[in-house]
Amino acid sequence: MNPSTLIGMIASVVLLGVLIFFAADDPWLFIDLPSIGIVLVGTMAATFLSYPMGEVLRVFKLIGTVMRNERLYTERDIEELVDVSRLWMRDDPVLVEKALPRISNPFLRTGVQLVIDRIPEEDILDLLQWRISRMKAKEAAEAQLFRVMASYAPAFGMIGTLVGLINLMDVVASGDLVVIGRHLAVALMTTFYGILLANLIFKPVAVKLERRTEQRVVLMNMVLQGISMMCARRSPSLMRETLNSFVAHREDEIRDSTDRTAVGAGAGGGVGPTAAGARPANRGGGRST
Q1: What pLDDT does 127 receive?
Q2: H or E segment and range at residue 76
Q3: What is the C-alpha to C-alpha distance for residues 165 and 221, in angstroms, rounded to an integer?
Q4: CA-atom Rg of the chain in angstroms
Q5: Is 120 left (phi over 0), alpha (psi -120 to 50) or beta?
Q6: Positive or negative: CA dihedral 12, 17, 18, 20
Q7: Contact of 39 with 202, CB cutoff 8 Å
Q8: Mapping DSSP to helix (H, G, I), strand (E, B) and coil, where does residue 212 land?
Q9: Distances from the Cα of 114 to the Cαs of 13, 48, 122, 130, in angstroms?
Q10: How far apart are CA 289 and CA 282, in angstroms?
Q11: Maximum Cα–Cα distance for the chain, whole Å?
Q12: Which of these, 161, 178, 180, lies nearest to 169 by C-alpha position?
């Protein structure tokens, strides 16, 4: 299971437990089946009206995707691309074609196959960019499905509140506090469930799917850059460093976080101690030669 998803689920359960068992005299007041039914059934009904059957049924698979700890195997893709590029530098397409079945990334495999087939670089990049755009559009629509459900749930919570208030107005003249309290509970609990489902399930799933798409797009753009360098017969070493820059996690692009060299703030705006191997500044005021 995805660690962040597990932590979020545990934190949600703890939050609800604190709210229900420590902030209420009777925890069972928060269990109201009619309120849950109004929100869930209403949200699903509106979702089925908004989307085709196939897209709605994908909801369960997408929730499984969020729960699963999915790895992208970026380092493996870099190594495979560098190895194939090294074979391509030998100008022997047969060796590259023999190595093709060992490439596990289908997007990378398609790009290498096109290079072997001597397809012009512009056509290869156009095709791969189109596949990236198609993937982004498909997964953006999947995340949007959950955002739409997050907007429906509070709305049906308000509908349940209106139903409870209408029923409350019908019996308020009788003065029966038990009946009045039951209708008032339905009126309030539906709003509670609607907001809870929207902000603890639907919206978090949408955000996680969007973040997953961003990571996959970065990986596909890295492969795209590698295919472009392979077409140009760039050095495998240069390719490795270029591709690593796509996935490097740096806190500061200018200075290494482990660098302990102090930065000076002198009147001339110069820096402090120079790096190892650098020519020291001329202290005599003249131009160094």
Answers
A1: 94
A2: helix 74-89
A3: 54
A4: 30
A5: beta
A6: positive
A7: no
A8: helix
A9: 51, 41, 11, 15
A10: 9
A11: 102
A12: 180
Dig out the tokens for 244 from the structure: 């690593």
CB 225, CB 126: distance < 8 Å: no
Q: Where do we find the tokens 């009788």?
A: 174
Determine the residue type at 33. L
Give the Å distances, CA to CA, from 5 to 12, 14, 43, 182.
10, 14, 23, 36
Give 288's contacts (C-beta < 8 A, 6+ positions apart). 279, 281, 282
Query: What band does 71 get if pLDDT is binned at 50, 70 and 90?
Result: confident
The pLDDT tens digits for 226-280 are 999 999 888 888 988 888 887 765 545 555 555 544 444 444 444 444 343 444 4
Distance from C-alpha of 171 to C-alpha of 174, rounded to nearest angstrom: 5
State the amino acid at position 167 in one-letter form: N
DSSP character at residue 120: -
Return d(Cα 29, Cα 49) in angstroms, integer: 32
43 neighbors 197 (Cβ within 8 angstroms)? yes
Handedness of CA 65, 71, 73, 75 (dihedral sign): positive
Axis crossing angle, helix 53-67 with helix 121-171, rounded to the nearest 10: 100
Token look-up 């007041």 returns 29
**Residue pair 200/12 in contact by the 8 Å Cβ criterion:** yes
The type of residue at 128 is: L
Would you state the structure tokens that stand for residue 277, as one six-digit string? 């191997």
Query: What is the pTM (predicted TM-score) of this model?
Result: 0.75
Structure confidence by residue, pLDDT tens digits, 33-50: 888 888 999 999 999 999
Q: How far apart are CA 163 and CA 152, in angstroms?
A: 17
Distance of CA 237 to the CA centre of its chain: 30
Do residues 38 and 154 lie in contact, with contact meaning Cβ atoms separated by under 8 Å?
A: no
